[in-house]
């Protein structure tokens, strides 16, 4: 089925929010404490996504009329990449990363970076990203999301 990637608009904030919630509650279960998972869900309400979209470019992936993925770009950083579990393993994540890389390249950067969640490290490695350090984000007092900084050079 054809995948379409387009800018996230306000009417779709609830869909992006729902994808984040269902994605982390599925994919992160064996990797992060439930307090971390629920803190990520809290940070991705439709309102928070709307506030964030003022400072970054957000994208939605659709397949056959269904919203199946969400991703964001801020300067040369890919963030908030989440795929609906029912649509996983079909190339949606790969297509979103390729799209974000192109947005970053057109922004004049020669390197893309991402703070990868633990379960996504192997995925990004397949997309040509290499680990370049570690960072823990304090999502709320005492709740830390551990991630791995990964970078990838972009072609001209
Ligand atoms: C990581 C994620 C975005 C991948 O999305 P996806 O649409 O399933 O990925 P794709 O179908 O494009 O997969 C591409 C390749 O990576 C592999 N892959 C996907 N997830 C993987 C994982 N967790 N570990 C190892 N390999 C993985 C696939 O098997 C596929 O391999 P192939 O090219 O040999 O077929 C998705 O699992 C997700 O939303 N995870 C939870 C949120 C998250 O951690 N996001 C990253 C935040 S930094």
Topology:
Elements: E1 3-7, H1 13-27, H2 34-42, H3 46-52, E2 57-63, E3 66-74, E4 77-83, H4 92-106, E5 111-117, H5 121-126, E6 130-140, E7 143-153
Parallel strand pairs: 4-5
Antiparallel strand pairs: 1-2, 2-3, 3-4, 5-7, 6-7
Helix pairs in contact: 1-2, 1-3
The structure holds coenzyme A.
Give a description of the structure.
There is one protein chain. With 156 residues, the chain is an alpha+beta fold. It has a single domain (3-153), classed as Aminopeptidase. It has five helices and seven strands, in the order βαααβββαβαββ. A seven-stranded mixed β-sheet has the order 1-2-3-4-5-7-6. A hairpin with a 2-residue loop joins strand 6 and strand 7. Helix 1 crosses helix 3 (46-52). The longest helix has 15 residues, at 13-27. The mean pLDDT is 97. Coenzyme A binds next to helix 1, strand 4, helix 4, strand 5 and helix 5. The site of coenzyme A (COA) has 20 residues, from helix 1, strand 4, helix 4, strand 5 and helix 5.
């Amino acid at each position: 089925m054809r995948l379409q990637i387009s800018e996230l608009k306000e009417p779709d904030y609830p869909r992006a929010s729902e994808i984040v919630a269902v994605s982390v509650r599925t994919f992160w279960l064996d990797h992060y404490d439930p307090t971390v998972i629920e803190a990520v869900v809290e940070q991705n309400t439709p309102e928070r996504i709307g506030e964030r979209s003022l400072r970054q470019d957000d994208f939605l992936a659709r397949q056959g009329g269904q919203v199946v993925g969400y991703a964001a770009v801020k300067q040369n950083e890919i963030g908030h990449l989440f795929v609906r579990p029912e649509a996983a393993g079909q190339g949606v994540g790969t297509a979103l990363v390729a799209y974000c890389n192109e947005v970053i390249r057109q922004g004049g950067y020669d390197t893309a970076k991402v703070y990868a969640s633990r379960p996504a490290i192997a995925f990004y490695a397949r997309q040509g990203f290499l680990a370049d350090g570690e960072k823990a984000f304090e999502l709320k007092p005492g709740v830390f999301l551990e991630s791995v900084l990964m970078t990838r050079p972009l072609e001209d």
